[in-house]
Structure formats: structure tokens, C-alpha cells
Amino acid sequence: MDSAPLIRDEEVFLRMNLAERIQHWLLISTFFFLIVTGLPLFFYDVKFFKLLLPTGRSFYVRGIIHRVAAVLMIANLVWHLFYAALTRRGRDNFKEMLPRWKDVKDAIELFGYNVGLTRFLQRRGIGKKFFQKHPYWLFEKHPLYGRYNFVEKFEYWALGWGSLVMIFSGFFMWNVELSLRLFPLWVHDIFIIIHGYEAILAFLAVIIWHMYNVHLSPEVFPMSKVWLTGKITGQELRLLHPLEYEQVLEERRKTLSAEAL
Amino acid sequence: MRHARSGLLLLALIGSFLQAQKTPSPASQNAACLACHGSAATAGTLRIRESHLPASVHSALLCTDCHAVKAGETQGDIPHQKSIPSPDCTSSCHREDNKARPGLDPLSYPDSVHGRAYLERGVGEVAKCWDCHGKHNIRAYTDPESTVHRKNIPQTCTSCHEDMAVVVKYHIHSEMPYQEYMKSVHGKALFEKGLVQYAAVCTDCHGVHNIQGVGEPHLMAKQPQTCGRCHELVFNEYKESIHGQQALAGNVDSPLCVDCHGEHGITSPQDEKSPVFSKNIPDTCSSCHARPEIMKKYGISEDRIATFIDSLHGIAVGFGSKAAATCASCHGVHDIRPASDPKSKINPANLRSTCGQANCHPQMPEKIASSKIHVGPDSKVSPVLFFIQRLLIILVFILLFITVVWFIPGFIRKARLLKK
Q1: Which of A8, A143, B100, B341 is the least buried, fewest Cβ under 10 Å from its Cβ?
Q2: Which parts of chain A fold into alpha helices (H)?
Q3: Share of chain B above pLDDT 70, in %
């Protein structure tokens, strides 16, 4: 309807500012080193890890790297907490990250949309009346996401929760004597078990899910460059974050009409 | 002066003549034998090299002292009977009785694995006196040239014991004892460090004339006392330990020195190939302690090794860390005792100081004494740990399930849409 659209497809939006990108880079590198130096202990039988750590000395160095990376990751987390609490952008992003009821609905809708089972049933003429009454259950539309979709939110909170668990259990594994002063040995054994399995969960949740989203997902393949440049285009905003796009559009309309007045 | 000299010469001549009259000198007697056997024309084993005789401890003996030659049966060109019986060294000589080390006594040969084969079963290939000591070149065992001098014993035994034809034919248990020995601490001590009097050679462990075969009860080479002759303090510790007490009381389940340390190839515990190298200790202990049929007899749980391997100590040891505790770090080495023994390193009263070794956990609290160690996630022993582990495993599977259910269909759908 308008000859000059309010948001052009080539327009550049800032998705991650420099501070956020540095936090992300730090997280990637510390996470990588923690996983590489930690997984061998969980899968101590796997030949690959035996090759990765061929000698007792390399095993010792592994421990040092793991602890250094842990300290850096904790420092990064503390920075992020301050950033999220003290900066305006941080607070805004944090609010966007808060889980909502809509995220659950989005997850179900996406599942229905991806699988397409109900559309298949409808085509076969099964439950025709039901689908006429309740077209929602046909999941014909892809859910519309805001700034962060439910997968991203899940990853964020998985990371937050995982960090807490890992820092707590890891701290006591690092300070065995303190741990045994405070807790009985069987509690310490629980820390060890939790630290291992939480690592696997984090590995799956963060690495596999996140890698899928930013690398493998056909929209971004071979790689989304947001983590390097922090920028996305108007087109990407419209396609991947339609609700945020609407929001920006709405704001611009308001300012336009305010100017017109 | 001149007269005196010629007088002495005369006396000496007369003296030697008289002596020759009484007992003919061996050289002249043996000359008759050597006329044939010393001749370069005589082939192979029948030929005796002149040079062998004077250096031999037997240079004063007559050929006939050892070889029972009957003269007078001259047939053709041989001046003695056709087959001469093999010498018997102990018939009139070599009847020493060494009470301190009975095996040194040649009289113990008939009851050795070699002696029985030779004397009872008539196996001609088996080691006889002259196979080890030499034939005409026999020298004192103290002579470095002797085939039975300490430094030469390993090679002497090897001439048969690494001959695969012999090893296979007689079902000899150890196939390459010398190859293994050469690389062992004992072999290196002998060949590299030159500790001839201190490095154990074959005969120190296996016996000398009384060598016994594998399968013989109380085999000298396996007896802890044998190792204890040199490793005295270790033996004293061992005989007080649970393993030592049981083994010396005749319990065949209990490990002997060789069961943990190895036999011919015995190496230093610092050597990566040693069964008692820190990384290999759990494997070595597991050869008994992971076997239910042995452990059930003594009321010991057979999961001790498995729970250790799964623990952080075990994982670190598995990766070759020398800082982490192995079985021996907590249970002791030669002085292993059951936890109920107040002297045991793992007795609750001593657990704090055992865990609290300077380079382990010096700040270990006293209450470790009441902790159960070697506890894995087992539903009976530690239900809490077990259920937490189960829960976490279920979580992992839920996450995997979600991954499969959300992403794979999504991926297929997105890929299809992009194609269009």
C-alpha cells in the first residue's frame, strides 16, 4: 500500500551488540574447552578420548584447562548477570527471555505443523467435522516468534540452570576435602554423578539444538553470521522474528503519525 | 755355584722320574687317547681340542677317570669298545653335601626335572652335567669363562630353553624366558649394570641341580621365600600381610610375588609394562578380585575393581595419571591387610591418615572413617545415588526424544519448502 516501506528488506538491525557477542564468544570457547576436557571422564572407555589424552601428563593438563575454563565461564556468567540487571538493553532482552504460556503453545504448534499428522487425517476425511469446528488443530500456520523463540528460550534457561548445577557440583568436586567436611561421602558421590549427566544434558541441549538452529537449519545453512557481526537484515527479521518485526513496524507507524500531527 | 746348580737339576730330574714311575702323568696317559681324538683328521664331536684340557679344572684327570673305556676288544681300527657309557660325575666324585643350599649339591640332580627325564625316561636331549658345565673344557663356576659362571648362566640355559623345537616337543611352559629376562630388572642389572653377584640369574630362582618343572608343588621359582632371599624386607612385610599369611599357610588362592610382579620379564614398578605400574594395578588385582568364584569364598565383594574403575580415582588412573590413587595407594603394597585388622591402612581408625597422605587429601576430615567407599550407583547399596542416576538418564533420553521429535520433522519440512 505504501511505496516506501517502513522496514526495507536490506535494512540492518542489531541483534547482538558487542558486549553480548563477547559474552557469547567467551561462552563458546569456555564451553568448548569444558566439554572437551570433561567428556573424557564420562566416556573414559571410548578409544577416541584415550587417544586425546594419551599420557598421565596430558590428563593433568586436562584438569588445569577444565578449571581455568570453569573460572572464566563463571566470570562470564557474573558479567552477564550484571549486564542483564544494570543495562537497559540487558533488561529488555532479559524480559524477552522470560518464559511465557505462548512458548508452550508455540512448541505444540510447531510440532503439529512439522509433523502434519492432522492435515494428513483431514485429507483422508477423518475427523472432518472436528477440524471444521476447530481449524487450530490443523496446525496450518508456522507459529510466529518474537525476539526469542521457545527453542532459544529453552537453551538460555537450560544454560542458566545447567550453569548453576555445574558450578555448585563442580566447586565441591574441586574442593573434595571441604565437600567431605560439609557433606557425607554419598552426597559427594551425587555431586559427581550430577556433574557428569548434567554435562551430557548441556551438551545435547546446547550443542545439538543450538548447532541445528545456527548451522544446520536450512534457513541459515551453512551458518548464521549473527554471532560474528551481530546484525540481521529486515528480511530476516520479518521471516524469523515476525512479532518483533511487527513491533518495530508499529513503533515506526506511531512516530510517523506523531510527526504527521 | 755351578756344581750346586747341576746338582739341583739332577735331583729334580730324578724326582720327576720317580713320580712318573709311581703314577704315570695324565698328559702322557691321555696322549694315547689324543693320538686319535686330538687329531685334526677326527671328525665332529669325537674330536677333542687340545686347548680345552689344560685350562679345565679336570686337567689332572685321566680320560678314563670319566670315560669307562675297556681296552683289549680291538676290532678293526678302534682300540676300545664301540659304545662307551656316558660318564657318571657323581659315582665317585662330586658327592658334596651342601646343607645350606641343597640345590647346589649335584646329588640332587636325579630328583630334578632334568634328572628324572634323563635317568628315568632316558631322554637324551635333556640337560646333563656336561650340557651345562661343558665337556672337556669344564671350568670352576667362579671362572668368568665357565658356562655356569653367574654371568653366563642365562645364555647357557637359553641354548635349550629358547630352542622352539625343544620348547614345543617337551611342552615347556615358558617359550622365551631369555628374551623376557633380558628386558627384566634382573636381566638389566646383570647385563647393563654388571651386578654379577646381586642380579638374580636363572639358577637363583629355579634352583641349580634340583630344578623342578611347572606344576610341581612348592615350586622354588614361585615361592615367596625364594624372592625373600634377596628382597628380605619386602618378604618380611609380605609374610605379615593377608596375602602372605594365606600363601605361606598353603592357600593356593593367595597371590605370590610372581602373581603380581610377573616372572621372567619382571620389571620395575616404574616401567609402563609392569603389572604393578600404577595404571596396570587395577587390572592386576582384578585377576583375582573381580572373580566371583574366588571372592565369594572369602566374603569379599567382587565389584571392588568395577567401582574403582568407575570412580574419579579410577578414571584418572585409567588415563595414566600418576597422582591419582590406585588400589595400592589405599590398601598398601606388600602389607595389604583386611579392613578389620587394626594395622590395616583401610581400617576405619587409619582411613583419615590414609586418605590424608601429603600429596592426596591432607585436609581430609576425620569423619571419612564412617564412610562407605567403593560404592557405585547400585539399587541395593546406594539407592539414592541409583535413583538420581536413573532420573538423569531418563532426562537425557527425554531430551534426545524431544530433539528427534521436534527437529527431524522440522528439518525435513523446511528442506521441502526451500526446494519449492
Answers
A1: B100
A2: 18-42, 47-52, 56-86, 88-97, 101-115, 117-123, 128-133, 150-174, 176-182, 185-202, 210-211, 226-229, 234-240, 242-260
A3: 90
B321 interfaces chain A, CB cutoff of 8 Å:
yes
| Contact residues on chain A for B396, CB-CB shorter than 8 A | 197, 200-201, 204
Please tell me if residue B392 touches chain A, with a CB cutoff of 8 Å: yes
The whole model's pTM is what? 0.79
Query: Does the distance separating the beta carbons of B384 and A200 come in below 8 Å?
Result: no
C-beta atoms of A181 and B319 within 8 A: no
Residue B359 cell numbers, joined: 600429596
Nearest residue, CB atoms, A193 vs list B319, B389, B409: B389
Cβ of B403 within 8 Å of Cβ of A40? The answer is no
Contact A189 B385 (CB under 8 A): yes
As a whole number of angstroms, the distance between CA B114 and CA A110 comes to 85
Residue ranges per structural domain of chain B: 14-80, 105-214, 375-407
Distance (Å, whole) CA A21 – CA A18: 5
Mutation site for B-interface testing, chosen from A119, A193, A210, A220 by largest number of B Cβ within 10 Å: A193
| Residue range of the domain that includes A11 | 1-16+230-261
Task: Among A86, A112, A144, identify where a domain stops.
Answer: A144
Residue A196 lies in a domain: no
Q: Does the pLDDT of residue B321 top 50, yes or no?
A: yes
Opening angle at CA A48, ends A45 and A50, nearest 5? 60
CB pairs under 8 A between A and B: 114
pLDDT at B205 over 50: yes
B278-316 per-residue burial string, b: 16 or more CB within 10 A, e: under 16: bbbbbebbbebbbeeeebeeeeeebbbbbbbbbbbbbbb
Cβ atoms of residues B68 and B152 within 8 Å: no
Mean pLDDT, chain A cut into blocks of 10 residues (261 residues total)? 71 92 95 94 91 90 96 97 95 94 91 84 84 83 89 90 95 95 93 94 82 77 85 88 90 87 74
Residue A36 to residue A61: CA distance in whole angstroms: 12
Residue A11 lies inside a defined structural domain of this protein: yes
Task: Pick the residue from chain B with its C-alpha nearest to A108.
Answer: B406
Among B270, B279, B319, which would you mutate to test the A interface (most chain A Cβ atoms within 10 Å of its Cβ)? Answer: B319
Average pLDDT over residues B338-354: 93
Residue B207 pLDDT greater than 50, yes or no: yes
Report the domain count for chain A: 2
The radius of gyration of chain B's CA atoms, rounded to the nearest angstrom, is 34
Chain B: give the shortest CA distance to residue A147, in Å: 20
Distances in Å between the Cα of B254 and the Cα atoms of A82, B21, B219 are 63, 68, 15
In a domain, A129, yes or no: yes
Cβ(B245)–Cβ(B278) below 8 Å = no
In 3-state terms, what secondary structure has residue B136?
Answer: coil
Which of A125-139, B2-16, B117-131 has the least mean pLDDT? B2-16
Q: For the residues of B299-337, what is the DSSP string, one character each?
A: T--TTHHHHHHHSHHHHHHHTT-SSS--HHHHH-STT--
Best of A42, A151, A189 to substitute, by most chain B Cβ atoms within 10 angstroms, is A189
Query: Given pLDDT bands bounded at 50, 70 and 90, which one contains residue B173?
Result: confident
Q: Which residues contact A60 (CB under 8 A, 6 or more apart)?
A: B321, B323
Residue A249: inside a domain? yes
Length of chain B: 420
